[in-house]
Write a structure and sequence with these properties.
Distance between the termini: 58 Å
Largest sheet: 6 strands, parallel
Strand content: 5-15%
Low-confidence stretches: 192-201
Shape: globular
Structural class: alpha/beta
Order of helices and strands: EHEHEHEHEHEHHHH
Helix content: 55-70%
Strand order of the largest sheet: 3-2-1-4-5-6
């Protein structure tokens, strides 16, 4: 069916996730494109959720931002897959698994340009400089206002996510974890390390 929302956020309610930036970003989007809708899915500490809800009201966005809180997986996927864009204004993020989920549905994501995202996602990800709310909003608006661009990015997203099936991701993750453990152990292996090695064999 037709998209339910112009954008979707799916993640924890936590300051590091840029949850308050999200309100400022959406205020800017609506200044240029009134009535643009955003779905927000996730939970966190009540104080953070309350603060977010207050900011939404203060910015007069209660009629365009829908705060879902926690949703079961299938419902969350339904909202995500029927959104035009996915927004992740996170200032710290690991692999960025939610970006991959959005891409798998052909929902083009916009995120802050965290250094390692470039290595992982390359051109598949639309980014703004970290903390630059205005540029983040502009990137989102470009996708919302230019359907051809959005379609192109949707295709790129799908293709990228398809190359990242779990059979590919899981061994990479395991390898990364193994090498991290290995380097930590080799740092400790001064003097008393040899006896431990015997036990392991």
């Amino acid at each position: 069916g037709p998209p339910l929302y112009d954008a979707c956020y799916l993640g924890r309610f936590h300051p590091s996730k840029g949850i308050l930036d999200l309100v400022s970003i959406w205020r800017s989007v609506c200044d240029r494109r009134p009535g643009s809708t955003l779905a927000v899915i996730g939970t966190g500490r009540q104080s953070v959720v309350d603060k977010f809800a207050r900011e939404v009201q203060v910015n007069h966005l209660d009629d365009v931002i829908t705060i879902y809180g926690y949703l079961p997986r299938d419902e969350a996927d339904r909202v995500l897959s029927s959104s035009k864009t996915f927004l992740l204004p996170s200032r710290e993020e690991g692999f960025g698994i939610s970006l991959l989920e959005a891409m798998s549905y052909g929902v083009p994501p916009v995120a802050y340009g965290l250094t390692h995202f470039g290595d992982i996602f390359g051109e598949a990800l639309t980014t703004a400089p970290i903390g630059n709310v205005q540029e983040f909003a502009e990137k989102a608006l470009e996708l919302l206002e230019d359907e051809a661009l959005r379609e192109k990015k949707a295709t790129v997203s799908r293709e990228f996510a398809a190359g990242f099936s779990w059979e590919i991701v899981a061994p990479r993750e395991v390898e990364a974890i193994a090498s991290a453990i290995h380097s930590a152990e080799s740092l400790q292996a001064t003097g008393e390390g040899s006896s431990k090695d015997d036990n392991r064999r």
